[in-house]
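Thread: quick sanity check before group meeting

JM: Hey all, I'm pulling together slides for Thursday and realized we never actually wrote out the predicted structure for the chain we discussed last week. Dropping the sequence here so it's in one place. If anyone has concerns about the input, flag it before I start.
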Amino acid sequence: MTDLASTGGGPPSFDLTSQPWIPVLYRDGRQDELSLCEVVAQASDLARIVGDVPTQEFALLRLMLAVAHDALDGPRDADQWADWWEDEDCFASVPSYLDAHRERFDLLHPVAPFFQVAGLRTSRDEVFSLNRIVADVPNGEPFFTARMPSVERLGFAEAARWVVHAHAYDTSGIKTGVVGDSRAKNGKVYPLGVGWAGNLGGVFAEGDTLRETLLLNMVAHHTNRHRSDPDDRPAWRREPCGPGAAPGRRPTGVRDLYTWQGRRLRLHFDSDGVYGVVLSYGDPLPLHNLHEREPMTVWRRSVTQEKKLGEPQVYMPKGHNPERVVWRGLSSLLAERATASQTTEAAPELGAGVLEWIAQLATAEGYLPRGTRFRARIVGAVYGTQQSVIDEIVDDRLSMAVILLNRQDRRYAQQAVSAVADADEAVAALGDLAVDLARASGAATEGPRSRAREQGHDALDAPYRSWLQNLGGAADPEEHRTRWRTETHRIIRRIGEQLIAGAGDAAWQGRTITTGKGDLWLNSAYAERSFRYRLARVLGDPEGLKADTAAPESPGDGPADLGPETPAAEAERVTA
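JM (edit): ok, ran it. Output follows.
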């Protein structure tokens, strides 16, 4: 095997600083596996880290960020960051740093194996399946994978990636206790939650190269909204973990958080690779009020937790909704963190610290021109069955200009968020049309509504992404939004026409519907007029569509607002 670990008669070794193990994508489309030193040396030629699954990419990126933060001991402030941004060789000192800590990056080290506990064992010396750490084959519920139904063996390179991933995203549930862990009762440790990153709705900024990506996410030690302690350091500069938890320890900053030892783990291997694992809980980490430490997630205020914990303000990480694409949650990504001098009322949400940092670089410091583009990337795990399995993995990205983060000119951000509202309202009108057509034919309404809304959002996905990408270059953001409203009207109107054409004879003939105004004869013709009115009401009237519609006399009271009362519709009414 190419990754056979040996040291010429000495103890087995797999040195992550020199052995290839991190999957990467080059800018020209080539893929390869590189060592830590090679990734740093070639960062300007690489598009990104790939990973076996998106959450693994997020975990590996955070590992690389911890290396970069610690090796460069910064950035102290925006000025130092700007010097690095202009210097193509800003990571030149990282290889020597890795060489100095080489021993702690040995996956198979007999005393301090990388991200593991030497000698970790259960009371029965059990060795468990690698399914426990490989996320694309969860226990009992394998995803689409060629490794079904179990993972018998891993090469050292892939095993190293899953070790990093386990600390970040391991599931909860009852785990086998290990010798020396006081939390074990009758050989078991009861659920203590998922790995730290598994709680996050992961957010980071992607540049055109891995070098740019690393720098864009390297937040200064101290900003108005983020801080790290002077003694902040990663796991490899701390004493090796024992089998039990470190009592009462809190994270000191990003270097600590990005390498948080949330699990106790030991690989079992032979000369051909890894064949088993021992896995248990590690250092616990409370979820609340780490918003000044953890910059790679949006935070939401929790009144429930405030009451439970007796604290005036409690913020919890906000996870991702797997049914909602990234642009539909744009308001959360662009949320501004108000300082105490700005308001006395706690904000319902706090934006991700990495995007706040980019906003500072673009606005207050002026180091990033307003037209600079980056991709806001979201990654997260969705757990099921009491967090004991990973049900889904969320992965999406959105290209935008830094002007959207500008705190002194909010016009662009406001138009971007308002355009999302335009889309949501137009899709809601499409859903109402589907309900009206179903009611006209006597069919159930919820299925048609949800299918129509899904179809509408899918149809607007690519157009919105393209529109947003060009928003930063628009001289007038309001005029740019007008073009979006016109395009949205065209797309949703076309889908509505397709729904009407496919509604069938029963909807065309219609039937009597009881409303608060009396009984109404509802058919596809009336449903179409109502839809056209609603669409013009929420998006404007780009094609003079209000000429044949009038405002409704009063809102309807059925499952769908039946919309305007036109003269033709009034003629069809059958009064009670």
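AS: nice. Confidence is low (pLDDT under 50) at residues 137-146, 339-343, 545-576. The domain at 412-572 is CATH 1.10.132.100 (Topoisomerase I; Chain A, domain 4).
JM: adding both to the slides.
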